[in-house]
Amino acid sequence: MNLVLLGPPGTGKGTIAKFIETTFKCTHVSTGDLLRDEVAKKTEIGLKVEPIMKDGKLVSDSIVLDILKKRLNEFNGYFILDGFPRNLAQGKMLDHLLDELKISLDVVLEIDSPVDVIVKRLSARRQCVDCKRIYGLDVPSKNEGLCDDCGGKTILRADDKPEIVEKRLNLYNETTKPLSDFYNEKGLLVKVDGNRTLQEIFSEVEKTLKKFESD
Ligand code: AMP
After folding, report:
1. H helix intervals, the chain
2. Is the distance from the beta carbon of residue 35 to the nearest atom of ligand 1 less than 6 Å?
3. Stated pTM of the model
4. Which of 5, 63, 86, 97 to mutate to test the pocket of ligand 1 (most atoms within 8 A of CB)?
């Protein structure tokens, strides 16, 4: 099963994607992580996108599409797309790309939460600088400031600072939210309430996706 995860930043998309990855044997592809990798490696793309990402703005569609194409060509099997598409143009680009690769999209899972919950979650969120694991209110690291998996330093991402979070949420509502209708019209959209414990969300996601697996 191939799926797209939609939802504003701070709804636990990354953590939910990891759960789906292990439960349904899909590969988690996060365009945010792919871009952060480019920034960390100081590649030509990384140097270009770093100031845009720090400011909570969107990177150009063509750059993101290029790194996504490269990543999808690296493996065979199912994927969970997290962070792409981010606007209607990218939704149409994804349709073309999947046609080209002869891959079908099976389901689009939209996670939603109230704004105050999102802001609280994002300001508590930390990411390991080395392995990129995310920690938050629901899943804190055992030793504050250090990653449980690799011992790397965990930090507040530049784009999780409160003033940038507000910008990202506005941008989401203006630019990404319309994708909800786009996929609803295609009959692919399934909504999940993200304002619950992770265990409750995991259990609903599992029940929902099992239906698509057996279809
Ligand atoms: P994320 O980890 O998905 O919140 O992404 C972090 C940042 O990477 C975003 O704020 C954007 O600057 C950039 N980004 C990630 N995915 C995309 C995309 N599909 N289109 C444009 N910019 C993106």
Report:
1. 13-24, 31-40, 44-54, 61-72, 88-100, 115-124, 162-171, 178-185, 198-214
2. yes
3. 0.85
4. 86
Query: How many other CB atoms sit within 10 Å of the CB of residue 144?
Result: 9
Name the catalytic one among 25, 102, 125, 167. Answer: 125
Annotation says 13 is catalytic: yes
Q: 17-59 pLDDT, tens per residue?
A: 999 999 998 999 999 999 999 999 999 999 999 999 998 889 9
Q: Where along the chain do its domains lie?
A: 3-114+170-214
Q: How confident is the model at residue 139 (pLDDT cuts 50, 70, 90)?
A: confident
d(CA 100, CA 72): 12
- Over residues 102-136, the pLDDT tens digits come to 999 999 999 999 988 898 889 899 999 999 888 98
What is the distance between the alpha carbons of residues 7 and 32, in angstroms, rounded to a whole number? 14
Residue 202, CB-side half-sphere exposure with 13 Å CA sphere: 14
**What is 3-114+170-214's CATH topology?**
Rossmann fold (3.40.50)
The finding on whether 56 has its CB within 6 A of some atom of ligand 1 is yes
The pLDDT, as a whole number, for residue 55 is 87
Alpha helices in 101-177 (DSSP H): 115-124, 162-171
